[in-house]
């Protein structure tokens, strides 16, 4: 299957899954905030994908590989499964909270703030992908692709800017969807990102030449001046 076909199939499957979880939990398709979030996520994701396809097709091909790979640490395989389950449960909770049972009442202006933050996060995601051709979806050293340390662009500010972008996108999504419970539970997803950051750094320091020196130069992992 070509990379283009893989991208299209992945987008269709992901969209169908998100709709089933969110709107199934909500009990209705008449949910403007839900469709607005879908438009933000797949619109932003589509723009980023087109940029990668034009600028770095090798990276896009790498991103389309299986999330379970032979040279991937076992802990990362377990992490990806756990985060996938948690993400699905989170979407279900938001649908139940914001629409079906209406446990949350969130002011509309917060949805606007959330939408702006999601857009900012996608801008950062695009910058990161265009800067780092080795940004595989799994933790591994890509020896066959000449893996090296990237220290320019966003990587000159924090060592894991993609996770930083996700740290903005996840709680912002709860704001767009109008769910206080979703916002609270997003802390679990963020904790997962923090844990993977720590574990991934151990792999990089141990196996990627020059990473330890890079970590000394760029002090912060996710949040400038904080951590």
From TrEMBL:
Transmembrane regions: 7-29, 35-53, 74-96, 108-130, 162-195
Superkingdom of this protein's organism: Bacteria
Example GO biological process: methylation
Keywords: Membrane, Methyltransferase, Transferase, Transmembrane, Transmembrane helix
Signal peptide: none
Pfam families the UniProt entry points to: PEMT
Subcellular localization(s) per the UniProt record: Endomembrane system
InterPro entries reported in the protein's UniProt record: Metal_cation-efflux_comp, Phopholipid_MeTrfase
One GO molecular-function entry: methyltransferase activity
Listed GO CC annotations: endomembrane system
Membrane topology: Multi-pass membrane protein
Annotated PANTHER family: BLL3993 PROTEIN
Identification of the protein by name: Isoprenylcysteine carboxyl methyltransferase
């Amino acid at each position: 299957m070509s990379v283009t076909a893989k991208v299209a199939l992945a987008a269709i499957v992901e969209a169908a899954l998100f709709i089933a979880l969110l709107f199934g939990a909500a009990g209705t398709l008449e949910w403007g905030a839900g469709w607005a979030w879908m438009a933000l996520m797949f619109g932003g994701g589509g723009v980023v994908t087109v940029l990668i396809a034009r600028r770095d097709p090798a990276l896009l091909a790498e991103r389309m590989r299986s999330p379970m790979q032979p040279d991937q640490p076992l802990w990362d395989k377990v992490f990806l499964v756990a985060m996938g389950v948690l993400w699905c449960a989170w979407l279900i909770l938001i649908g139940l909270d914001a629409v079906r049972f209406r446990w949350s009442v969130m002011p509309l202006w917060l949805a606007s703030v959330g939408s702006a933050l999601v857009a900012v996060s996608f801008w950062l995601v695009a910058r990161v992908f265009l800067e780092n051709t080795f940004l595989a979806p799994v933790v591994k050293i890509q020896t066959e692709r000449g893996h090296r340390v990237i220290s320019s662009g966003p990587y000159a500010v924090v060592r894991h800017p993609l996770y930083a972008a996700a740290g903005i996108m996840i709680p912002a999504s709860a704001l767009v969807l109008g769910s206080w419970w979703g916002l609270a539970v997003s802390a679990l997803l963020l904790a997962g990102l923090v844990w993977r950051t720590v574990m991934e750094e151990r792999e990089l320091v141990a196996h990627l030449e020059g990473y330890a020196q890079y970590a000394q130069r760029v002090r912060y992992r996710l949040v400038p001046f904080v951590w």
